[in-house]
Structure formats: structure tokens, C-alpha cells
Model the fold of this input.
Amino acid sequence: MFIPGLGAPGTLHDHPRIRCHCIIGSFQGGSMSKTIPQASKRSRAWIWLIVIGPILSVVGLITGFASAGAACRSVVGPKEGLVKPYGTLQGMGGGERTCESVMDAVAVPTWTFIVLGLVLFLTGIIVRSATRKRAYVAGEQRPTKQGVNRRSILQGAVAFFATALAGAAPAYANGNVRYVSASGSDSNPGSVTAPWRTLAKVRSAMASGDLQRGSTVLFKRGDDFYGSIHMPSLIGSSGTLTIGAYGEGARPRLLGYKVSKAAWTQYSGNIWKLNIAANSGQYSGNTSEASTNVGFLKAAGMIHGRKRWAISELAADWEFFSDSTYVYVRLGVNPGAGVAISVQRDLLRLASHTTVQDLYLGGTGAHGVTTGGKNVVIQRNEIEWIGGSALSGTTRYGNGVELYVGAARVMIRENVIRQTYDVALSAQGTGTAGWTDITWESNRLENCNMSLELWGKGGGTGFLRCRFINNTCIDAGYSWAALIRSDRDGKGTHLLTYSMEVPVDVEITGNSFLGARDNYTRNSGDRQIPAGIITHRNTIKLGAGKKIAYGAENPETSEQAAQWQARTGREQASIFAVSY
Done:
């Protein structure tokens, strides 16, 4: 018998996640041949009915619990997943109709297996009872306590169900699942027992079409993977590519760091250099990355972010400069092995029809996640230690999640984003495509220089049906880069808007904005929040004397919130407090 996701016929007993001997063992409390009379041994069909029945039902449950798509509920799971919000985002409910059509196809085998399994199991119980009764009437000896009884059968069946449901590998509708582990090999087929090893293999699989729309790639929890994933346009006409996690433990970590070996050489005096060109052999980690545009250094858990623009400017310990080949560091001793070096490379650049979930993303001089795609979900990830590379000239940058022009039907929810050079969540750019149906919901943004940034040029649709709701934003302006930026004036803020030259339809509600180095909001032009941004029913707590809005046009401090609300008409039904 072949069970989807569990391997070839004949392999179930040895499958690492479902062990059939959880039932068989319950039959071996003693020797059945010694306790069941010869007449009974000729009528053991009930045993197979009781064993096979639960197996079929579990197959049905695994199929039914599998998601019908990244934004869909499962057939037997909760009655409402992401279908409802996605239907709303798409305007005409197209996401819901797609989900329901997939679910209809899955429902028939799901309920067939579940019902057939239960019927076989109950039939086995009935046959067993009848067999015992006939044996007793014929004068045969009842089975002893060492033999099989109804309780042991039920206990075995329950144990089988529990083991199968708890230990089974994730099941997906199209079955094309690939696994990646730090102990795997890129020559493996990518199965759960023979996983791939590197991000390079994942990238090549996307380019070749081995991973396409409808596929899933899962990284092993607790493992580290160095490099980045920049997706091509995905092959396939339907479904979503899902990137996620499997196993137990902490989120799998996708890291951009180049990690120094003990290969530093003295440049002059207290200045040391390391060759960080691709495959130089002087570092481990992200060995194939070509960029040498360093964002920050991390040594012994400490971030060092003072980037200089010439070797001659290196004046204090851990200040650094990088050129097309080397990173130079000023330090009284050899920096040694283990210095993590972030460089300019977005960790994930997503194509349309993609879901990314349950990952840790960190250690880059650029952005954590970027996309200008459509139908994208970014959820339950942890993103930190982001940015600091030079964007142009001496301007540095780096956001947690950045949405480019053209992004549409994007949901960013339940992520934790910390320690960015610039902004936790940003939507920005120039062009007519704009940003449509964007939702930022229930994220936790901690110690980023800014929480939310919006700006657009080029006309067109601008921001259409965008919502920032139920997020918790803490300590804006207290990131690792807060005191080393050259443009610090008013930038320690939760809400940043500038160059807003496009239509705006954005709602900001239900959020908590707790603590800021400078102010709650900073806006270019007339220093007021753009008219198309509706802000209401938020909680805003700032320290004593903190400005609510940047600029001389906004003189009110946190103690004068009522006056600011009355003057601007902003934050109606919001709660202000001077307590943070």
C-alpha cells in the first residue's frame, strides 16, 4: 500500500516518523500462538481489519489537514484560515474561489479514507467479539491476560493515531516537498531522509523548475544556512511556492554573514585587513557572495557599525572600511577568527505567488526581505541585525521588509523585526504601478530606527487599500545604528512619510506605538501626516517632553496630545499617555 508522503510500498514499518510496531507491539505482551486456540487462529481477519482501519483513517486525516494553498484552510481543519482576508484583499473573492476548488478536489479522498478506515476498524471489533463468543460456546478457553484483548487493541490504535499525527512530515496538496538540512548533501534527492544542504541548491532548483508554484521547500529547525535566495519568476501556472521549516526547535536561520578565519594580516600599525572577495578562502559562512560592501561587524555578540569612507579615517577600535577586495579594521590586536561580516545582499527577494514563514533572517548589510510581487505572504518570521551598507555615496540603508512598486495582495503578519539600520516595514519607490491591497498585521517591531515608512513618486495608482493594523511598535530610534547615522534629526520615529507624490489610501489603526527617541511621526513637505492616511484608535505612549510630530510646525509635546489632536484632527479615539 502506498501512503502519500510516507515513501514507497513496503516502507511504512521503517518510516522514521510513523512506526507500525506501536500497534504490533501491543499484540506481543505474550505469545498469541500459545494462548489462542487453533480454531480461533483460523479466523484472524479481524486483526487486519483493526490494523488497516486506523492506517486508512490517518491517511485521510493527513490529506485533510494539509493546506489547500498558502492562503486556504484545510478540509478538516479550522473553518476559516486566510481565505477570508485574502478574499477581501482581492476584491472579488478570487482567492476564496480558488481555495474552494482545490479543497473540493481534496475532500473526496480525504473523507473516503477516513470513513473507510473507521468502518474497517469497527468491523474488526465486531468480528472479534463474535469470534470470542463462538469460541466460548464451543468450550474453547478464553484468551489469558497474555493474549490479545479489546483494551490492548484500542490502546494500540489510539497510540498509532497519536504517533502518526504528531510525527508525520508535513503534507502538501501537490506533494512536491523538498527538505534542506545542514547535515544533508546537494547530491541528495531532497527528501526528508535525504535532504539537500545549501541555499545554492534551492536557488538552482527554482531556476530549473524543480521548485515552482505549488512546491514547498522546508529548512530544518535549529540549523544555520548561509547565503541568500533571490527568486526568478516562478515556473507554473497555479499554486504558491512555500518556504518554511520542519522538525523541532528554533527557527532555521538564514544568515548573510561572511565569518572570518584566523587570516587577518596587518595592513599598518593597528589596522588589519581580510580578503572578503568571493571564495577567497579567508572566511567561512557566505563564501560565494561577491559583495564586499560591508554594513556592520559583529564580534563576541557586539555590533560594530562605524563605517568609514577611507582607510585614513579609521580612528577608533572597530571602525572599518571596505573596498572591492578587503575589509580593514582598526584594533589593537588581531581580530582573529569568528568576526561576522555583513555585506550588501538582500537575504530573500521574493517572486509573486510565494509564502515565507517560520524562518530566522539576519546578518545582512541590505534588506531582510524584499518584493514587488503579487500574492505574497510573509508570516511568523524573525528578522534582525539588518542594514548599514552604502546605498550610494555615503548614504547607508537597510529595512526589515521592503515592498517595491508593483506589490499587490501582500500580507505581512505576526513577524518580529528588530535592529534595522533604517525601517522595520517600508513601501517605497517611483513608478505608476503603486501598492495595492497591502496588509501589515500583528507584527512586533522592536528597536528599529523607524517602524513604518511610506513614500512614492511617479503618479499612477499610488497606495490603494493598504492597512497597518494591530501591530506593536517599541522604542523607535534605538537601533544599533541610532547614534552613528549622519541623518539623525527626527528620524527616531514610528511613522515616516516623505516625497508623497501619489494617491494615498492607507489606514493605521489598532496599533501600539510605545517609546520613541524623537517623535511619533515625521513627515516631509508641510510636516503633516498626508491626508489619505487615516490614523485612529491607536495607543501612543511617549516619554515626557517628546514631540508628537517633527518640525516647528508641530510644537506639541506628549503632555499636549489633546491640543495636537484638536488642531490636526488626527488620532481620533486614540489613547495618548506620558508613561514610557
Observations:
- DSSP finds nine helices and 40 strands in the chain.
